Amino acid sequence: MDSSDADNHPLPTSALATAFLALREAVLAQWSARVMAGIPSAQRLGAPALAAAMPLLYDHIAHALQAGAPGAFAAAREQATLSDYGPDELIHELQIFRDVLFAAAGARGLALSKRDAELIGRSIEDAERDAIHGYDAVGRQAKETFIAALSHDLRNPLHVASASAQLIQLKTSDPGITNLAKRISAKLAETDAMIQSLLDAAVSEARQKLTLQLAQVDIMALIEEVCGDLPMVGQRVRVEGDAVKGWWCRGSLKRVLENLVSNARKYGDSAQAITVTVSQADGSMLLAVHNEGRPIPAADLRRMCRGFQRIEDVRVKGWELGLPYVQAVAESHGGSLAVDSAEGRGTTFTVKVPVDARPHVGS
């Protein structure tokens, strides 16, 4: 279609938008058919990646034609999350849409002015940029989630090995073995510090909901498993409260427990027992880990409660490490994380999650 001819016989704005909307179903059907025939990833998935976004884009273009000006479009982003798709295939879907749209307008005899064609082209370009931005964001989130999970999985055996090395020191009188155990502990501590920094950076950067695998979980059985896997070097762990079963992600809750109990062991009073308490109220399960000893300084506590951000210069080193992940797990279940710390009552971290997290996951 020659744009100069269209400029000689332009349709009024309202008439053009009405005629454009009348082509909607035919254009979308032809677009879907061409995508399914020409893009192998769409064939494997059984639908175009932008199937849900394209009707919104079409209506967006109609509104732009009605108003005579482009507007912001951000609906393609949510649909650009399919791992089987590459960015070039997302662009290909939008290019097919552009070709089908202009061909249908020409076949119907719609007189598009140069400005009308530019509005349509600009809207499709905006959708292309948005789709790629969403694709990149999903890639970053997947990478950060992987780093966070791997970091926690690496930390847990390190904690077991470190506690075991400390037990060896307590149970031997051989100076050579004692020194070797101390060297092992020191190297494990160095490795743990590096992994914790990686974990903290990854999770605090992501700040998004985690992908959870829900199943029925017996929280008391999980607590027993975690405490059994973490030698406490003479420090007791007292478990109290209700036997609660719920729909949660077992793996992520296990990491939460390991993190909180390990922190309580490292930064609490080793002469006092760590207390893990489970309670249930108003459809939620409350999991609290408490330790006696020096509290978190008030200024640092306020900063932690503003989002558990990393604290560089604190007297109690390490409390913030891993807490962004704990908070992310709680919030991804539809819950929250709270901390209470004061002189005379010690420190308590409380994770609150719905007993049935299924309605909150994926929303």
From TrEMBL:
The keyword Transport belongs to this UniProt entry's keyword annotation: no
Domain Histidine kinase intervals: 149-357
Keywords from the UniProt entry: Kinase, Phosphoprotein, Transferase
Pfam families: HATPase_c, HisKA
Broadest EC class assigned to this enzyme: transferase
PROSITE patterns: HIS_KIN
GO molecular function: kinase activity
Known catalytic reactions: ATP + protein L-histidine = ADP + protein N-phospho-L-histidine
EC number(s) per entry: 2.7.13.3
InterPro entries: BphY/WalK/GraS-like, HATPase_C_sf, HATPase_dom, His_kinase_dom, HisK_dim/P_dom, HisK_dim/P_sf, Sig_transdc_His_kin-like_C
The UniProt record lists the keyword Iron: no
SMART domains named in the record: HATPase_c, HisKA
Protein's name according to its UniProt entry: histidine kinase
Organism: Massilia phyllostachyos
